[in-house]
């Protein structure tokens, strides 16, 4: 059976984590969420998002980091723009273990490469829970890896925003589906990002906590989790969160495996989608864990981390 869970905009949260050495001290109750959120991490450097062939025959390669322009260090695309008034620019470029190299560009050529430069990492995920006492949140259930850099990026600041699901690309065996979402960056940010950790992003919730259909619920101890029926909270249309039926099929250490049994979810999504990571799992009215992965060859099957294990991964 499916139940509709409507939220006020100010309550669009994700995964609350307590910044304490153990889960007991962090929280006894959490608000289960399930909304889709946009995530933005501001990086302390500028990198090249795509290979670019320059008129002189040299290449700017995907993943190159631009460290200096005309001998001055740069940490943002805006600082590069400020230098383009010069007739010629000299870029100092470096990629991982390679030696730094220098490239000379005219101001026109520099303007042409600006669309290929980035100083932030963006993504979509699912809000897992909020701690109503500490106003801390957590999200995703896994670490953010930048697709160009192929590593978790260093970042100086981070924000989360409400995302609305515009369309679904269904999963099929061997072909993971995904959510197509729109992020409103003009919207008030919901919270900051303090940590990009093994089991998700964590930070402070900055919006008011108003009345919601979802109330704080108890955290289920790992030894109490049972095989069988449970619910998965997630959004697959707009910003509305719904509860879908699943069966927990395996419990091992701090991890779970489950199968989607909800006919409507299977019909609309084919099972688990990219972007569902962080979706809360609830059993017998208690908070069990969060989705972390799907099985590519069997998209109706997913994996999850227990919420008690997630709470141990405090921000450093």
From TrEMBL:
Signal peptide: 1-25
UniProt xrefs under InterPro entries: PDZ_sf, Peptidase_S55
One Pfam family hit: Peptidase_S55
UniProt domain Peptidase S55: residue ranges: 94-316
Cross-referenced SUPFAM superfamilies: PDZ domain-like
Sorted UniProt keywords: Signal
Record flagged with keyword Signal: yes
Name of the protein in its database record: Peptidase
Organism: Lysinibacillus halotolerans
Organism placement in taxonomy: Bacteria, Bacillati, Bacillota, Bacilli, Bacillales
């Amino acid at each position: 059976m499916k139940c509709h869970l409507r939220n006020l905009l100010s309550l669009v949260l994700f995964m609350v984590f307590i910044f304490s050495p153990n889960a007991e001290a962090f929280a006894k109750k959490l608000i289960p969420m399930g909304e889709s959120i946009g995530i933005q991490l501001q990086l302390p450097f500028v990198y090249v998002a795509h290979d670019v062939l320059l008129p002189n025959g040299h290449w700017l390669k995907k993943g190159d980091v631009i460290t200096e322009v005309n001998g001055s260090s740069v940490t943002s695309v805006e600082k590069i723009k400020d230098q383009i008034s010069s007739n010629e620019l000299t870029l100092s470029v470096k990629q991982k273990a390679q030696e730094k190299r220098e490239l000379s560009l005219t101001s026109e050529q520099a303007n042409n490469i600006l669309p290929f430069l980035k100083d932030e990492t963006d993504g979509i995920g699912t809000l897992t829970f909020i701690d109503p006492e500490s106003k801390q949140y957590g999200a995703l259930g896994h670490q953010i890896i930048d697709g160009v850099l192929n590593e978790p990026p260093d970042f100086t600041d981070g924000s989360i925003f409400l995302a609305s699901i515009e369309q679904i690309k269904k999963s099929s065996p061997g072909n993971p589906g995904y959510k197509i979402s729109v992020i409103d960056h003009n919207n008030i940010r919901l919270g900051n990002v303090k940590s990009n950790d093994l089991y998700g992003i964590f930070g402070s919730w900055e919006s008011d906590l108003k009345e919601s259909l979802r109330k704080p619920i108890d955290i289920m101890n790992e030894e109490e989790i049972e095989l069988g029926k449970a619910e998965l909270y997630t959004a697959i249309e707009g910003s509305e969160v719904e509860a879908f039926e699943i069966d927990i099929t395996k419990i091992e250490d701090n991890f779970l495996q489950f199968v989607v049994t909800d006919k409507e979810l299977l019909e609309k999504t084919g099972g688990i989608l990219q972007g569902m990571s962080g979706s809360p799992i609830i059993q017998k009215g208690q908070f069990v864990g969060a989705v972390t992965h799907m099985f590519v060859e069997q998209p109706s099957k997913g994996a999850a981390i227990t919420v008690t294990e997630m709470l141990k991964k405090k921000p450093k």
